[in-house]
Amino acid sequence: MAFALLDQIRSIFDGDPGVRKVADDPVLSAELLMLFRMILADGSVSESEMVAFRRICKEAFGIPESSIDSVIEYLNEFGYETNGSQAVALFRDLDLERRKQLARHMAEIAKADSQLAETEVRLLRRTLDLLDISPVDVVKPEE
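^ TerB family tellurite resistance protein, sequence as received from the core. Prediction below:
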């Protein structure tokens, strides 16, 4: 109980720990921006896409559930400075498995609402081309 209170007090002075984590990691920021762009690709934000985004944030990146709204706000405020090509450029030099992870997460977001829009397909295809990843790698289970 005392530790939770100390964490809350520190959060007030230091900022949200999830936002700090994202702000301190340009690759993580870029990935979350790409996922958010996938959510917006079809012109609407569905609840199922947001559920998938929140789950990826929590499970893949260890962002606490209590921080996700603040992380989204951070991405909205600072994400306008980075376009999709700039975000993907951060991934080009990363190992193949890390690039595949980005593509899988994007595909998961796109499929979350059970309606794969042409704009989502184009964004995913363009990202796969930029990352030099085969579409087979996205649908193939992780080894």
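The chain has nine helices and no strands.
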